[in-house]
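Record type: monomer structure entry
Structure origin: computed from sequence
Chain ID: A
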Amino acid sequence: MASNNDLSVILPRVLIVSRRSVRKNKFVDFVGEYHLDPINSYGAVPVIVPRVNGVHMLLDSFEPIHGVLLCEGEDIDPSLYEAETSGLSPEELEEIRRLHASDTTIDKEKDSIELRIAKLCLERNIPYLGICRGSQVLNVACGGTLYQDIGKELSRKLPENQRVERMEYDNYDGHRHLVKVVENTPLQSWFKDSLQEGKMEILVNSYHHQGVKILAQRFVPMAFSTDGLIEGFYDPDAYNPEEGKFIMGLQFLPERMRQPDADEFDYPGCPSAYQAVIAYQKRLNSSTSVAKALKLNQEMENKRKIIVRSFSLAKNLYTAGGWMHPTKQSELQAGAEFLKSNTALSVQQENRLKQIGATVRNGSRYIEKLKLNEEREKLARNVIGKMSVEQLSDLMSFYHMMGQICSEVLERKLHGIVNENNC
């Protein structure tokens, strides 16, 4: 593994949205370490997107995005996928809120953030892994729908022997139920060493009372529970980790499928989903590592420092303006000579040099311009100093009027340009 000081390896950044909770009468944001650890262990950097108001408008600030993991949270606002409440009575809805109090509080801000991130991944083919709620977000983002409560809408319509118990609050991490894995899917590949011959079954955990009702058209199921609920799905047209393609949703939480009081996974394939999200970016990094900087000898290093100092002075002059001590003016010459000798600059390089203050290639011409401005200022002060109070007052009124006229004319011209562009 590369050392911390080796910047030649660019680690992939995986976005994870936090969940809101209340601690000591104040809101706090958190992400479970059981989500963060697998990302970190495979050499990626988990970047937490805070669930705070307005963040859904600032997602560009989190670029570059190499992968996304959306996981736990409250129920998604049903108005985002169904106009009505699936025929559930007010009494049934109240019972659901009572049984699943920690999940049924709608968090519209988190919905907005995660749906926008999911759509961004779909548009730009950014690797996306949705776990539990994250899989539901992915389905809703593509036009699918959810059961608002599996027990009320699905289980009660089935015979007793086909029903699946999904929530066991007294055995939260230990509870498991059976799912059947679909052949020729990534899930089969990950768990192939754990599937018994002639059977495509594994036991998974469960922390949800909602799930996929109608799967969006672009997705293909990877697993079903015995009551027919989809437990995993993916987009086959957007799945090839070696090419950076990975769009998937899992209703269960493989990172929490561990032996009691141990870190050992139930199955060797449990962490595979996390590895796949970052597989392509890690391979990309290995082939496009930034070359290490050339080590300069002492003479060249001293020259480099002089040139950097020259640009720094130019920047200060450009941003602050004003006067420069004569002893410092000679230091501008090193930067000017460097620019003269490097005429084959790209447009981007020239723009960057302009931004840092290297606005002219001829340092001496820039110094002459500063001197001319100083002489004009002295002359103006001498003339104005000889004027009377009345003359100064009239002069100020005149320039104030001229300033107003210029402002009005400029506004009209700019308004005309905007109108022309809109035509």
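Annotation 1: The chain is about 40% helix and 15% strand.
Annotation 2: The chain has a mean pLDDT of 76.
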